[in-house]
Amino acid sequence: MWDKDGKIWMDGQFVDWRDAKIHVLTHTLHYGMGVFEGIRCYEADQGPAIFRLGEHVERLFKSALILGMEMPYSRDVISQVCQDVIKLNGLKSGYIRPLMYYGAESMGINPAPLKTHGMVAAWAWGAYLGEEGMEKGIRIKTSSYTRHHPNVVMTRAKAVGNYPNSILAKSEALRCGYDEALLLDTEGYVAEGSGENLFLVQGQTLKTPPLDSALNGITRNTVMTIAAEMGLKVVEQRFPRDEVLVSDEAFFTGTAAEVTPIRELDDRQIGPGHAGPVTKEVQKRFFDIVHGRDPKHMGWLTPVI
Ligand code: PMP
């Protein structure tokens, strides 16, 4: 067990980290039906602040709606718990993980007898793809695994069962000596990373795949706003993987990955082979926003007091 001091919220109560346990017949453990979020809290100049909490909670509820899971808690309760879990664990910054899952009330595919349960944990977490990657850019590999078709599992939901696909792709990429995977959709067009959305820089345009097979990333949406403020045009359009190679720059976005430059795809250098000027500017503006240094976007921060 990943042993730690601290408290985790489970179904209305804060319990010790070590006692936050579930039964082995927990339905989600067997069949993967569950929804979750990944949220970051940053040490802003004004104190700890959760970035775009409202949007993350909304996506959690939409994910549950898509999967037909009844939510036993209100948006307000989940929002409050996300703040409390930071406070109670004495974190100045960190990663917040709410998960809604089916319990051990019954086995079998039919979810009717099952109850939805909830947990929220938080812990300190640095740069997901490494400090060096953040600075110099990462190396990625086109995955041999295809991203989900929207009619296999509905990709608009951040569903537990979507992630074996990500884990297979990520571990294949790491095993082959790369930092991250690039997954293509069922028709062979670029979809996203194992836990990130992708952007290409082409002159004054940012290009990103549409949401057919990619998650509706909140960082993706943030970067689109930043791009508009930088006077860049944003295009959501399908593209094949060779378009990544001929772009000026490329970067991944995600709550964990933040804004991570990509320097190579399949051993071929992209643009300058390190973080390019547009990526660096987007990254700088992103970190200014999350640290409360951009007065235009203070509304995206929920102070933890
Ligand atoms: N795609 C996938 C598959 C993800 O898991 C994530 C992380 N939630 C993202 C994209 C990025 O989404 P966000 O910016 O909301 O974290």
UniProtKB/TrEMBL annotation:
SUPFAM superfamilies the UniProt entry points to: D-aminoacid aminotransferase-like PLP-dependent enzymes
One Pfam short name: Aminotran_4
CDD domains per record: BCAT_beta_family (cd01557)
EC number(s) per entry: 2.6.1.42
Gene Ontology BP terms: aspartate biosynthetic process; isoleucine biosynthetic process; L-leucine biosynthetic process; L-valine biosynthetic process
Catalyses which reaction(s): L-valine + 2-oxoglutarate = 3-methyl-2-oxobutanoate + L-glutamate; L-leucine + 2-oxoglutarate = 4-methyl-2-oxopentanoate + L-glutamate; L-isoleucine + 2-oxoglutarate = (S)-3-methyl-2-oxopentanoate + L-glutamate
Molecular function terms from GO: L-isoleucine-2-oxoglutarate transaminase activity; L-leucine-2-oxoglutarate transaminase activity; L-valine-2-oxoglutarate transaminase activity
GO cellular component, one term: cytosol
UniProt-listed NCBIfam families: ilvE_I (TIGR01122), PRK06606.1 (NF005146)
Record function comment: Acts on leucine, isoleucine and valine.
Recorded family membership: Belongs to the class-IV pyridoxal-phosphate-dependent aminotransferase family.
Protein name (Swiss-Prot/TrEMBL): Branched-chain-amino-acid aminotransferase
Lineage: Bacteria, Pseudomonadati, Pseudomonadota, Magnetococcia, Magnetococcales
Gene this protein is translated from: ilvE
